[in-house]
Description:
Blueprint: H1 22-31, E1 36-40, E2 43-46, H2 47-63, E3 71-75, H3 80-91, E4 95-98, H4 105-114, E5 117-123, H5 127-135, E6 142-146, E7 160-161, H6 162-167, E8 184-189, E9 199-203, H7 204-217, E10 225-227, H8 235-238, H9 240-247, E11 250-252, H10 259-269, E12 273-276, H11 278-286, E13 298-302, H12 309-317, E14 320-328, E15 333-337, H13 349-356, E16 361-362, E17 368-372, E18 388-393, E19 400-401, H14 405-411, E20 417-425, E21 431-436, E22 441-443, E23 446-448, H15 450-458, E24 463-473, E25 477-486, H16 495-503, E26 514-517, H17 530-543
Helix pairs in contact: 1-2, 1-9, 2-3, 4-5, 7-9, 10-11
Amino acid sequence: MAGKYDLDLEPCAANYQPLTPLTFLLRSADVFPDRVAVIHGNRRFTWREHAERCRRLAGALMAAGVEPGDTVAVLAPNTPAMLEAHFGVPMAGAVLNNINIRLDAAGVAFILEHGDARVFLVDRQFAPVAREALSRLGRKPLVIDIDDPEAGDGGSAGTIEYEAFIAAGDPGAPIRWPKSEWDAIALNYTSGTTGNPKGAVYHHRGAYLNSLSQILSFGMTDHPVYLWTLPLFHCNGWCFSWAVAALGGTHVCLRRVAADLVYDAIDRLGVSHFCAAPTVLGILIEGRPKGWTAQRPVRLMTAGAAPPAAILRQIRAIGFEPLHVYGMTEMHGVTTLCQWQDEWDLLPEEDKIGRMLRQGVRCIVQEEQIVADPATFAEVAHDGKTMGEVLMRGNMAMKGYLKNKKATEDAFAGGWYHSGDLAVVHPDGYVEIKDRSKDIIISGGENISSIEVENVLCDHPAVKEAAVVAISDERWGEVPCAIVELKPGAAGIDADAIVAFCRERLAHFKCPRHVIFEPLARTATGKVQKFRLRQIALEHLARR
Length: 544
C-alpha cells in the first residue's frame, strides 16, 4: 500500500534519470571547453574537441548499423581512440569490450566470438594478431584500423581508417542514453589463468559510482593531470577513463610504460596522478634518473598484487605518495583502499609502511565487505590472525558473467560476491590479504601465507621479484617453494643464501624448502601465474 511519501510522487523526467558516466563528458565540454583534455605526443585535444570526436564516433557507429546492446571491441594501447571509445561506444547504445593487447590470436578470437563483436577497432601495431584472430572466426565484424602516428605500422586489419570513419560521423546524432542504470556499458574479460576467460558485464550505475569514488579516494581535485600507465583495457582503467572526465582533468596517453617516459611526463607535463602495479613501481625505481625526486606531490595508486614493503619504502623515498588499493574485474575495479589515518603521520617510517601494506577498508561506494567463512558467512575475529574469505556485495558488483550462468551463480552464492582471497582483519577493521584460497600453503597443519614469505624475499637486496608456491612433501604435506628473479648484475647469490635470509626474518617452518632462480610466469594482464610456477617448480625438482 502506497504511503503518503509515495502518493502522487512518482519519478518523472524532471526528477529521475539513470546514472551514467556519459554525462561527465558533456559537462566538461560545457564547463572547460578550451582546457586540454587529451595529450598524446604532439597531439592535443580540448574538452570541446574531445567531446565532438566522441560524438562523431557514436554517430559513425550508428550509421554503420550498430544497434543498442551490440558489442564494439577495441584492441589498442592507451591512445586517444581508446579514450574516445569509452564514451562514443556507449553513446551509440553499444557495449565496449576492450581486449588485452598482450593476448595471442587465439585469445583475441575467443573474446571476439564469445562477445559477438559487431565492430572491431584495431591499432595498426596489433594488426598481425588481429588478422590471425579474424581468420579463426566464422562471422566477421566490421574492422576499423587505428593509425596512431606514435605507433609502428603492422599493416592493416580493416577496411577503413579510424579518422576517416569518425569524420563521417554526425556529432549531432541523438545520444542513445541508457534506459536503465542496469544497462550494460562494458564487457571485461578476466585473465583466464585456469581456462577460458570469463566476461564480466559492467553496468552504467557501477561505472558512474566507481568513477566518483576514485576521485574522492585519490584526492583528485583542482585539475588533475592523469598519466595512463595503467592499461585502459584493464577494468576500463579502473574507471579513471570516466573519472578524469568528471573533473575536466587532463589525460596524458602512454602507449608503453618505460621509466624515462614516465619521468619526462611528470617533469614536463605536470603529472599529478597515475596508477601502477608493483611491477611498474619496480621499473620506476630501477630506471630513476640519477638524483631525481618529485618536485611536487605525485600521487600513485597501486594494486594488482600486494606491493612488497621494499617497493613502498623506495618509492616513497623519491617523493611519490602511494595509495594501496584492492579490487577485481568483477567489481568494476577498485573497492577497497588503505585509508590513511591522521595519527599514522606520527609513526616511525617502518610502521607507516606496515600500515600501507594492508588493503584496508571498503571505499565510499562499496556497501558491504566482510571477511568470513564462505559457507556460513560467520565473520572472523578482528584479531589480525584468523583468516577468512573476502566477501562483498553492493552496487559495485558486475551484472554477472556473459553467457555463463553457472559461474555467475557460484560467484554470487549466498548473496555475496566471493573473491577467492583469504584475509585477516586487524583490530582497527583494516583488511590484509594473506593469499588466494587456492594458493595457501598448509604445512604440518599450519597455514603459511605465500604473500608473507614473498614480502620477506623481496626485501633481499639482490631480489627483483619473487613468488612462493606449495610443493608436496611426504613429511609435512606441503612446503613452500620460492621462485626468485634476481636483479641484473646480482652475483654470488645461491639458494642457501636466500633461505638463510628468510630464517632471520620468519618462523623457520615458513621459510622456503626449495629455491628456484627463474623469471616469473605471468598472465597477459601481468598477474603471476602460480599454476604455471607450480609446474615449473615440479619440473626443476624432478631434474635434481
